[in-house]
Amino acid sequence: MNPAKPNRPDKEKNISVPMKKGASIAMLVILLALLALNNFGIQRFPKPDFESKYVVPATQAPMPRSIILEYLDVVVLLASISLVTWFVLKKRSRMGVFGVTVFSILYFGFYREGCICAVGSLQNVVLGLFHPEYHIPLTAIAFFIIPLLFALFYGRTFCAGVCPLGAIQDVFAIKPMKLNEWVQSLLGLVPYIYLGLAVLYAATGTDFIICRYDPFVGFFRVNAPFFMFVIGVLFLLVGVFIARPYCRFFCPYGVLLNLVSRVSKKHLSITPTVCIDCRLCENSCPFGAINKPLGHKSPESRNVTVKRLILFTILIPLFMLLGGFGGSMIHGNLANVNPKVRLASELLLPDNQLTSLQQVDVTTFRSSGQAVDKLNEEVASIRRQFYWGGWILGGFVGLVIGLTLARLAIPRYRKGYWPSKGECLSCGRCLEYCPVKPDMNDAQLNALKKSAAQ
Amino acid sequence: MENQDKFNRRDFLHKSLRTGIGLSLVGVAAFLARKTNAGNYVWQLDPSKCVQCGRCATNCVLTPSAVKCIHVYDMCGYCDLCGGYLRPETKEFNTAAESQLCPTSAIKRKFVEEPFFEYTIDEKLCIGCGKCVKGCNAFGNGSLQLQAQHKICVNCNECSIARACPAEAWSRVPLSEAYQLRGFENPKKG
User: Fold this and answer.
1) Which of B:104-143 have CB within 8 Å of A?
2) What is the rounded distance in angstroms from the CA atom of residue A260 to the CA atom of residue A250?
3) A195 touches chain B (CB under 8 A)
4) Residues A160, A173: contact at Cβ < 8 Å?
5) A124, A161, B134, B138: which could form a disulfide with A101 (CB 3.0–4.6 Å)?
6) Residue range A396-449, pLDDT digits in tens
7) For chain A, how many structural domains are there in total?
8) Is A22 an 8 Å CB contact of chain B?
9) A140 and A23: one domain?
10) Does any CB of chain A come closer than 8 Å to the CB of residue B49?
């Protein structure tokens, strides 16, 4: 026996079986029986020795896109986000932002086909935090962290024109409508729920729902399932009247940017220096992100304020408890998205009740020789994760609802027209409306104020 | 100006929040960065686990799927009676469409010398259904194997075939093992 080829005895045994019996019918029956098992890779017929000059072709195994190009994406992201920041904060130029918008639709959208994107990278980060065996790509970390760091210092300049999902909607915002404050706040709760679900499903290693239900990636790939294509078209059509519906009322990454941007160091301001209350910019924001001045209409007594404070300190924990309880009640439904949980429940069904797709799952599992007990153990642990995940998700949603109500109920004193730092997407549309120029002196400002009052 | 608001409570709050958020973001990034390996990971399926259920053809985000049948010629027996090429119930062994197993006629059959035939796969036509792979595994050497073709695969964040795979054959593999073909060595970098 040749020691250099340890596989040899195995191989010979495999070959010798068909050789002895030839191509008889009996053999075919056995082969078909083997088909049910996984009989992958049996060298039944030796590779021929060709007498002619035939050369065996090389197996085609082309390598993927080089890693350098992946890092190039990060460089492009950094460059374009810096450019937008510069256009918004220094140049105060909407045209510049629009230019970057078009570029990012072309580059991150149609060239990179919407992947990798910062919105989805949030799931990689969560999966990386909860699953030590997952190796998160460096690009995913960079795409997650860079827009957030920029938002921390300069506001949501990533949303303005770098995010391909936002960019494609931005060019469709042709006839934006004003939304009622209550409607806007209520719809604004959806992203928090979406974020909670995305984190829950990523943390349990179930699915990346943000990527699965990304409405625009199908356009970028010019290749979408019909259902997602319809959703994408709907978003764009609605986006004509309600500007950027996905960004404002769905985007889970926008939630993080929103929260971080609220404490941003240098945020876009409509006026370069002072606000003269001319109201010219009042309707310029398609996203309803300009805070109007609010005076004390009737200064509230201390009594009312204290009562309200007590009400909300009771209401918010109550909402959280209720939400958590609700979340834990539906944890079974939430867990059913997990393929393993589904497989376990399919295994309990009688064979005649299975659909043909489920049949494939069940027969594959049975023929793989894995123990049902082990699967059930795993499923029980996944269900437990979903139970506690449901509590946390529900509590989180309750907290957000409570805080939103509190924000709507408590009147605040505001002076001048300033962008709402959380909701402002830094698109720069409002900048052109402001009559104040940075180099104006006091006399010119006063004249402007007077003409504005008229 | 500076004398007027020496110490603003709101500014202080924002500044501390900013520092806190900034530090935690960098912390998370650093924690994760320690875990990344050099080089990227790509999605690939392990042909030894594959059961050729056909979901690679239907569940890929691309149409046709990025999964293709790849022929490892070194393993091929060059059989006349190819289990991956001909339908099992075929009466006449010719290259007519009705005797071919492949739904898109992506396998081309060429005479080499008596009694050997070469089978090549037209990747443009292949939809990754795995019918030929099943046939080759059952009656032949298993030289036809399903693989994600990395020139086509967009390497999604989360592979939608991986989620639908009943055999758990899909996983993220390091770039150096981009192809999990049996009887084939991945090209070495360098």
Assistant:
1) 112-113, 116, 118, 120, 123, 134, 137-142
2) 17
3) no
4) no
5) A161
6) 999 999 999 988 888 778 888 999 999 999 999 999 999 998 888 888 888 888
7) 3
8) no
9) no
10) yes
